[in-house]
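Input chain follows. Return structure tokens only.
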Amino acid sequence: MTETAQARQGPGVGVEAWSHWAEFRALFEAEFDFVCRSLRRLGVRDADVHDVAQELFVTVNAALPTYERSRPVRPWLFAFATRFAANYRRLGWHKGDVLSEDAPLPSPRLAEKLTARVLVARGLDALDFDKRVALVMHDLEGIPAPEIARELDVPLNTVYSRVRLARVGFKKRLRELEAEERTGEPKPAESGPEGSADTDEEDPR
């Protein structure tokens, strides 16, 4: 090994360890934004997203030797995001506040973008966690249902069922929000298909 290669590795770092670190660093730099976006969509607040993502990548680093390189990486990472978001919700780890509606916005375009993001977040908040995960993975991230089933270790038809029910619940919540905007009064929550049990289904597309 040349002196230059040794210097790049640093003292006491073997080729295998250096290769692992280089792969992890490339993965972190390429997918950190994806993981943060996924955590937000799963209910982690903006003020906490980077902290949770950092903790998530510590676990990813430890699990990287077990990752099958023939598989797409994003569904694998999303499975970590699902577990960390579930723990976040269970532990009530909420350090920050949501975006204030009274905060000044620098441009109408940004205001429109933030409004759409808030609406999506509020629509997702109406879903139970399992259906929220299925909808985010399938409809927002474009992950195929078979890959979702594999990563979540659930039957394929369960994925289809959760996606269908989540779509119904999500759309209903958006209609309620639109009605609230028109009337200025919140609409009482209704029980509906989004709370129904999972059933065997075909592909909901």
